[in-house]
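Per reviewer request, we include the raw input and output of the structure prediction for the construct analysed in the revised manuscript.
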Amino acid sequence: MQRVVSVVAHLGFRLQALPPALCRPLSCAQDVLRRTPLYDFHLAHGGKMVAFAGWSLPVQYRDSHTDSHLHTRQHCSLFDVSHMLQTKIFGSDRVKLMESLVVGDIAELRPNQGTLSLFTNEAGGILDDLIVTNTSEGHLYVVSNAGCWEKDLALMQDKVRELQNQGRDVGLEVLDNALLALQGPTAAQVLQASVADDLKKLPFMTSAVMEVFGVSGCRVTRCGYTGEDGVEISVPAAGAVHLATALLKNPEVRLAGLAARDSLRLEAGLCLYGNDIDEHTTPVEGSLSWTLGKRRRAAMDFPGAKVIVPQLKGKVQRRRVGLMCEGAPMRAHSPILNMEGTKIGAVTSGCPSPSLKKNVAMGYVPCEYSRPGTMLLVEGS
């Protein structure tokens, strides 16, 4: 069956199921999965646990996936994202280290300012996406994907050793903090009641260390993966359950799992590494050119610059686009056809949007088909 779809102007709109390689039911007793400090908390609150990137995490709770999704859009939800890799890069050459691995301008970040950036290889492919924050405490705070934990850690550790062998002052520490994401339009209002700091002075992609519900040493960052206002709170593991319990006492807050997180991020046009971007995708093809620092473009001093920078002025073969249609949902790997029936690309993630009441997706098509409003076909069952 084929259905007509339209390319949309902005990649801001859900993914069907989580990638089978990353997420599956907990059916095998021999599975050895890592647990976050909130594992027992999830079970006590009805969390349906699944295996995700080597971790046991809740895919949803007692609320339906759709209810969790819409509650996040209208109020706020609490997500456990402690599976993410959190690292601290310290030493006077910390910026040099990070800029040798990513495409962003880390040197220009103001104290406590962060940015989304990309690890790239020499062929211009994306190794992972990550957030780098230049803390006022004299180190870089880095958060990257759990699915790339081993790869990212090895990449950074190898570069640390290389620079140390050159006499550079740099080091790396893996943080064992929990990471909680409070997301939704009322998130800041909810959190404000628990902190002395004025959250109005914490704009998007900035962070500060503060006490939250009596737990000291929490790093609160104004960011998220839902398209809504919100924060991510890096909290000492011993205080994670106390913090989550305190937040849940506010009727605005409900727990949400991987399913809602995934559909929310797709509505917002945010990439899932391994689906929408990977080592065979360049930042330009992935519609992520904005992550390339202006100074870095001019210097061409990041991995893959000789491939990526010319693509900014030239023509790439394909681009990531947003798609929307009525009827049956679009699924990952479904072929994308032009109106003559010729296959021109594939869907990377997609399914019904609880907010829009339509089907949304992402996929790759040749540049000539990437103009908003272009009508295409998607094959499916």
